[in-house]
Amino acid sequence: MSKESFKMFARNHPELISSVMSGESSWQKLYELYDIYGDDNNVWNKYINNKISKEYSFKDVFNSIKNIDMDS
User: Which of 20, 25, 53, 58 has its CA 20 to 30 A from that of 31?
Assistant: First the structure.
């Protein structure tokens, strides 16, 4: 899975942003799950639940995603 496809997935699921911003998860962990399972798996049920606690800008998402270590 590519970094760009993960970014699109994160943009389509703002619940992931809330999960990272609240400290419940990290972008690295979410990327690793995406890399292993892809976007169509029950693993995402924990994170994607149609509840968005706070809106974040694309800049917030980008700044968080740019720190993902793609080699790990």
Answer: 53
Q: Output the CA torsion sign for 23, 60, 29, 18.
A: positive
* Residues whose CB is less than 8 angstroms from the CB of residue 39 and which lie 6 or more positions away in sequence, other chains included: 5, 9
For 2-57, how does the pLDDT look when each residue is reduced to its tens digit (9 = 90+)? 889 999 999 888 889 888 988 889 999 999 999 999 988 888 988 886 444 455 56
Please give the model's pTM, rounded to 2 decimal places. 0.65
Whole-number Å distance between alpha carbons of 13 and 61: 11
**27 contacts: CB under 8 Å, gap ≥ 6:** 20, 64, 65, 67, 68
68 torsion bin: left (phi>0), alpha (psi -120 to 50), beta (else): beta
